[in-house]
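Figure 3 (text version): C-alpha cells given as input.
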C-alpha cells in the first residue's frame, strides 16, 4: 500500500497540529495572565499549569513541523523546487482563521486604546495585558480554525 501524500495533505496535517498547538499556547498565556492578578497561592498553581501547557504546546508544534524542518535542512544545499499542488481546504481555513485573529487584534487594541484612562486606574502590570492579548489572539485563531473546518465537515455530510 502506497502512503505517499500530496503537498496539500501534508500542509493540512501540519496546519491542524499547529492550530491545536496555538490553542494550548492560548491556555498557557491565559494562565500566565491569571498568575499576575491572583493571590500568591493561586498564582503558584497558574504558574505550574502555564508551564505544563506551554510544554505541551511546544511539543505539538515541534512534532508537526519537525518533518518539514528536517526535509528543508536536507535540501538546504540542493535547489528548492516549487510545489505545484494546490492548497488544501485545511490550509485555506488556517489562513482565514489567522486573518480573523489579526482582525480581532486590531479591534481589541483599538478598544484598549480608547479605554486607557480606565486601564491606567486598574494598576495592572503591562505583562498582564501582553499575555491577555496573546491569549485572545491565539484562542480566536485556533477556535475559528476548528469552527471553519467543522462547519465545512457538517456541510459535506
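Below: residues designed for each position.
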Amino acid at each position: 500500500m502506497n502512503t505517499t501524500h500530496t503537498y496539500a495533505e501534508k500542509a493540512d496535517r501540519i496546519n491542524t497540529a499547529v492550530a491545536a498547538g496555538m490553542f494550548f499556547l492560548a491556555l498557557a498565556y491565559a494562565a500566565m495572565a491569571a498568575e499576575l492578578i491572583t493571590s500568591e497561592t493561586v498564582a503558584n498553581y497558574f504558574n505550574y499549569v502555564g508551564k505544563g501547557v506551554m510544554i505541551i504546546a511546544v511539543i505539538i508544534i515541534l512534532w508537526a513541523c519537525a518533518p518539514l524542518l528536517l526535509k528543508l535542512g536536507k535540501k538546504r544545499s540542493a535547489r528548492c523546487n516549487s510545489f505545484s499542488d494546490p492548497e488544501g481546504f485545511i490550509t485555506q481555513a488556517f489562513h482565514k482563521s489567522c486573518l480573523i485573529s489579526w482582525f480581532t487584534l486590531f479591534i481589541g487594541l483599538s478598544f484598549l486604546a480608547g479605554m486607557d484612562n480606565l486601564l491606567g486606574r486598574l494598576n495592572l502590570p503591562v505583562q498582564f495585558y501582553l499575555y491577555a492579548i496573546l491569549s485572545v489572539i491565539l484562542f480566536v485563531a485556533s477556535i475559528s480554525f476548528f469552527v471553519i473546518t467543522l462547519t465545512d465537515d457538517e456541510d459535506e455530510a
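The chain has a mean pLDDT of 84.
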